[in-house]
Amino acid sequence: MKEDFIIENGSCHITKKAVNHNPKHMLPVVDWLSDLPKDGSEPDLVEVQFKNTRKGYYHNNISLPLEKGMTVIVEANPGYDMGEVTLTGQLVSTQIKKAHINLERYEIRNIVRLATEEDKERAKEAHAKEQATMIQARQLAKSLGLEMKIGDVEYQSDGTKAIFYYIADGRVDFRQLIKVYAETFRIRIEMKQIGARQEAGRIGGTGPCGRELCCSTWMTQFSSVGTNAARLQNISLNPQKLAGQCAKLKCCLNYEVPVYEEAVKKLPSRHQHLETKDATYYFFSSDALKEEVTYSTDSHHPANLQTISIQRAKEIIDMNKRGDKPLSLGGKETAVESVKIDYQNVVGQDDLTRFDKKKQHRNNSNQNNRRRDSRHNNKPRNNP
Q: At CA 279, angle to CA 277 and CA 285, rounded to 5?
């Protein structure tokens, strides 16, 4: 009887003994058109995924009944490679447009056949060499004094070619390095430069949120992230907090930017000050999601801060334009009330004078004992 149980959720599989990361199931695409009837007009393009984040598009010119998750053999230069089908049907053309691939310049090769057990064993033997090759490749690059880092090595499934992914700040002349690699590993060499984000996506890991990195699970392309995204969300510009494992700004900073952009449009202008009969208030801070604005009586320092709703602020601005001034900044119906939190007994303690009470109770007890002893001593004694 088999004791292990397996739970799959797309990017990893959980067994009874351990949780193992499965790079074949990274970057999944939900085919929401899969349950629609086929009319025969679907393109023959198929999306195939290889090691980690590398994907390619191929023609299914032999009309294989391919489905998501099948392992196929595709044409390569030279030889062949093995990958997993991740998308078929109409959505493949959509993904090609999303990746900004020009089909006139992009060479689309063909799918050869379904992978056999022999193909899988040969690919497994080739991929087993990747870790040792990467360590040795780093040593060779260091010995030549090149300012670059070999981030990953990917062997082709037939073992005739290897892709060396490297990271460098500038241009690197690695012509001599390719000759050394070819003589050392006896295979065809291809060098491909990647950025820090791509390296994090290929290696994988866990983010500060406790989940697997977005770049290694579902993100198909990277968009630029700027500090304006943090400023818009009132996030402290702390490099240690804003940077991810790739030492770049976190991609998740862009997730809520459209929501904040729509909320910020409702806020009054920062340069608009409010006039009341008792003082002049200047913009100090705002909370776009709560629709609240805080004003100060000093234009440069926080003084007499008052927080009101956006609606109330716009009402006062309209009143000032008409030449009127309200009695105070806040209103009973629209002002944001401040809640004063008193002392709360959150740990089951008594009031702060509990020690004094116990001490007083102890004194009373000692005084009673002394009175009892004095009465006992004053009793007449019978001599024998």
A: 125
Give the largest Cα separation in the chain, rounded. 130
**Per-residue pLDDT tens digits for 284-294:** 988 888 889 99
Strands laid side by side in the 161-167 sheet: 149-155, 161-167, 188-193
- Structural domain includes residue 354: no
How many Å apart are CA 187 and CA 190, to the nearest integer? 10
Cα–Cα separations (whole angstroms), residue 196 to 101, 132, 151, 366: 22, 22, 9, 75
Residue 151 belongs to what domain range? 125-199
Least Cα distance to 148 among 183, 192, 204 occurs for 192
Q: How many CA atoms lie within 13 A of 60 on its CB side?
A: 19
Helix (H) or strand (E) holding 358: helix 354-378
**CA dist., res. 215 & res. 201, Å (int):** 5
Tokens of 151: 């981030």
- Rounded to the nearest integer, the mean pLDDT of the chain is 78
Place of tokens 């007449």: 380
* Dist. CA 88–CA 90, nearest whole Å: 7
CA-based nearest residue to 263, from 232, 285, 242, 237: 232
Q: Looking at the structure, tell me whether residues 99 and 18 fall in a common domain.
A: yes
Cα–Cα distance for residue pair 356/352, rounded to 1 Å: 9
Residues present in the chain in total: 384
CA distances (Å), origin 95, targets 55, 86, 321: 11, 11, 53
How many domains are contained in the chain?
A: 4
Q: Residue 308 domain-assigned?
A: yes
Tell me, yes or no, whether 185 lies in a domain.
yes
List, in sequence order, every residue forming a beta bridge with 350; answer none if it has no partner.
none
Q: What is d(CA 133, CA 295) in angstroms, rounded to the nearest whole number?
A: 62
Rg of the chain taking only CA atoms, in angstroms: 35
In sequence order, the β-bridge partners of residue 179 are: none
Do 238 and 306 sit in the same domain of this protein? no
Q: How far apart are alpha carbons 193 and 180 in whole angstroms?
A: 18
* 116-150 residue pLDDT tens: 999 999 999 999 999 999 999 999 999 998 888 89
* Global pTM value: 0.58
Q: Rounded distance, CA 282 to CA 298, Å?
A: 7
DSSP 194-215: --HHHHHHHH--B-TTSSB-GG
